Amino acid sequence: MAFDYSAGSLVRARGREWVVLPASCPDLLVLRPLGGSDDDIAAVLPFETVEDATFAPPEPGDLGDQRAAGLLRTALRVGFRSGAGPFRSLAGIAVEPRAYQLVPLLMALRQRTVRLLISDDVGIGKTIEAGLIASELLAQGEAKGLAVLCSPALAEQWQQELRTKFGIDAELVLSSTVSRLERGLDLGQSLFDRYPHVIVSTDFIKSPRHRDDFVRHCPDLVIVDEAHTCVVAEDTSTASQSQLRYELLRRVAEDETRHLLLVTATPHSGKESAFRNLLGLVRPELADVSLDSESGRKLLARHFVARKRADVRQYLTKEDGLGDDSLAERTAFPSDRFFKDETYKLSPEYRALLDDAIAYASERVEQAGSQGRREARIAWWSAIALLRSLVSSPRAAAQTLRTRSAAAIAASAEEADRLGAPLTGDAADSDAMEGMDVAPGAETTEDPRSYLSDLAKIAEQLEGPAKDLKLKALIKHLKALLADGHNPIVFCRYIPTAEYLAEQLENDKESGRRGPLGAKTVVRAVTGTLSPQQRIERIERLAEEAGEDAAARRVLIATDCLSEGVNLQHHFDAVVHYDLAWNPTRHDQREGRVDRYGQRRDQVRVITLYGDDNGIDGKVLEVLIKKHRQIKKDLGISVSVPDELSTGVTDAIVEWLLMRGREDQDALFGADAFKVSTARLDSDWNSAAEREKASRSRFAQRSVRPQEVAREVAAIREALGGAGEIDTFVRESLGALGAVLRGDGDDFTAQVGGTPAGLRDALAPTVGAEVIERDRPIPFRADPAVARGEAALVRTDPVVGALASHVLNSALDPQADGARPARRCGVITTDAVGTLTTLLLVRYRFHLTLPSRNGDKQLIAEDARLLAFEGSPRKARWLPPEQARALLEATATRSTDRHYAERTMTRLLTHLSDAHGHVESYGEELAAELDASHRRVRQASGEIVRGLSVTAQKPADVLGVYAYLPAVPAPSAVPAAAPGVSA
Length: 983
Known about the structure:
7-stranded parallel β-sheet
């Protein structure tokens, strides 16, 4: 027998109620459980029993208290996984976006083909913004596949972010995974056809061998992380890797129907031509249009968003042009970084070693200068490697002294530069961080009995705080940080240095040796010897080992393999620069790992350790690091210094050191070469800062006004609820279910050992079976940026979802075991009303037709609304929505007689059908409002809204009925109140 059910109909099959989805046909019903998610969709064949389902009315004897309506409403809304409004994906993602993060999404939905350059400041949440756009385009059918191009070190983090926050499962396409993926392909099949969502290593895919296949089968939505590394300036000659990446993106962007999101915090990198090339990928006209003209700025504004923290720290306030602060959102970024530069002096033994090394390097460079340009460049890179490793640590020095220089095999001067520069420099625009933290070599011969081997033996004898006074200074400053309650990250340049510091600082359980930082301090090192996933796992283990003990502390020793992309703000709140980077942008990247949204401390501590007498550190700090800090303080954002300019300064420092030694460093600032290099640096850097300042003002995000954002935020909160509602729901529900709550502030903990077994079983997969079995406290945080094992007070958190599901199911089942916080009925006597007032909780279903470039998409969405009227259902005087919502806050003035309450509810339910006409007409009004909202969000493109429609499915479901009685003197014959009727 063929089926004859329209989309949105309610049916009963397999012992439960379902909603019929648009994909159904006469021979097959596609169903979603009532209140369920898309993950629960099932197909039913004609031989199965299917019948019309009607939503049963509430039972008048199953009365709840004053909290019942609010808890049921929230529990219902938390269960929605696809909203009826223009943002289809927001109900189903596991993150509650900040209001300012909706701006790029609004910009995207106004474009038929999305092309955006998202350049918000470090730590604002660009990954979330890109993920919001991706999940929305996929949910609407505007995109069928997704590719994220990023550094291999960040690939697994992107995979985790997309899976856990947006429900997008993506395959990793890396040099280490491609063979396995290709083995599962059919003959002639591309892996980009087999896997719709992929995260691809930019450096792997840029080679001609893989690039052509990717371009031919590229998904229709591409996100490019750290996009500034994929373009080159026109005057740059040594950027072959960036050139390959640019060629890849240029070909990807050639398809005008492909959505493209470019993500970077540093779109300029100090070079206007590189910025223009980046804009040209977004839209070719932007590469040449005059950005000084009004038309040019308007064109750019549609595709470019760049905000600093000060722009979004307080958003949707009266200062933004809104009438009041009812929608105001304040984001708790750390207020500022506290910088402290700490110096140390070399021990006599270490000073002697450094002087011997400088003398050797000076002689070697001088000799090589007469042997040809190739030999001169090899000697130069060998000298820099030697000096940098010696300044870093005795362990790094020993390894460099024994290791052959990478540049020694070069066949030309150009090849020597290509091989030597990455290992000894700190280029800011290089995304090839992998392998760059190994100690460089300085040896240019293969003679194991060379002079450098003798120096290496001396270096080995200098390990430990007695002769390595840099280490001694670090221990002193770490103790102070730990005593103040901080958990610091110590950044080093080289792997041997990081491993050396970890050995010197950690507690050795096997030998019983206690480290200098205390028995409860856990120290671990993370370097490029670990894979990206292993690095994250080690950090998580470090956090677990330190535990929740207030006296426990954790110290992470890391190389720059962690300086980009990895989020460390949940576990660490201070940074120590053990080795100075020779490009200040690297310092900003390191500090940005902890100074970002989600950091609980208002101020991040930054200690920069520098040598007072090693001939290098003091000058780098004075000329590069401090100037970078000052520019950032003035502008509120970081301005990159071009690599060649910072290299020019450091080259002048090294050259002076090799010629004059350590003792004549004060005269360096008067040297002509140094004056020229620093003058050029200052001029270009100041110009870049002024351009950035002007562009931030001139190109400020103005294509989406705060009033437009406010309107959509209000609609979202009306449909899905806000953080305050979730906080109340979680506290009241857990308390009513028997949990033990501790904490009076924004954050609290809950022990659920005394709650019903059904709730404990539902929570175990989300917080861990051991937490439930041992009744450990579950931390609940007001800040949605939570660490593993914590729950965020947002509707999409798995713990909140499990709790809401339990509350909803127990409310719908009067026979459920244990406490039932929410009920479908309630009679409350209160002075909040002057006459009998009835509150209805109604679930509406809407049938949406959303046009897209891939064809119309038919969807069913749900919404929950509160309706209230005074008097009887037949002569109802309907109240405006804000008055209906206000009833949720009404408190019982006194108890209500149980029998009187049941009689009141029975009469109300008997005549409730008289109010159904208004309930249905309100659903039609909602459908019209939703239709207008969809059109408003897509207002810039007429093609996007052609054919759009929203209709209400009838009948609506009345889930809850709550009567509010005026608090007049009770009749004398009224018996005692039964428990549970009112609170």
